[in-house]
């Protein structure tokens, strides 16, 4: 049996490089898609979390216009199994947004930051995209309400961003966007 050895090494290398580039393009496309999804989800998660905080902290129940089913599903998704928010007394609502309450600054900021940290892992670009997403979500929450939000919301978002920034610094990543 004779093996044909007329394989042109240059052509073989060229084909290899074409396949390698296509594979890298697909990986880059998948990564960019993942980055985009994380950022969009961080926007939503941040905006809804701040919206919930605002609604609970606001004692004027006439502003409490909830799409009950979606709202209750969101609350279950984040681990809230307490009393229906719309039926809370003023004291119960205050307790929920207190320092140690489920919707207090620390626990809400931790949920927002952990959403980004768990989705991004140790990837610098994903961490930055998630950070950007929660800030964008906060801005959207401000726009939805059309006015300044309660101080609790600003303190919450600052704490969430601080947690992400701390993780990025621990990993040796710059907080300054080099492309800006």
What does this structure look like?
The chain is an all-alpha fold and 180 residues long. Helix content is 69%, strand content 0%.
Which descriptors apply to this entry?
6 helices; mainly alpha; elongated; 180 residues
Strand-helix topology:
Blueprint: H1 9-57, H2 68-77, H3 90-96, H4 105-120, H5 124-145, H6 151-170
Helix pairs in contact: 1-4, 1-5, 1-6, 4-5, 4-6, 5-6
Concise structural overview:
The chain has 180 residues and is an all-alpha fold. It contains six helices and no strands.
Could you give the order of the helices and strands?
HHHHHH
What about the largest sheet? none
Number of E strands: 0
The general outline is elongated
Approximately how much helix is present in the residues? 55-70%
Provide the low-confidence segments as ranges: none
Radius of gyration: 23 Å
Fraction in beta strands = under 5%
Structural class: mainly alpha
Task: Tally the helices.
Answer: 6
The average pLDDT value, as a whole number, equals 80
What is the first-to-last residue Cα distance?
A: 63 Å
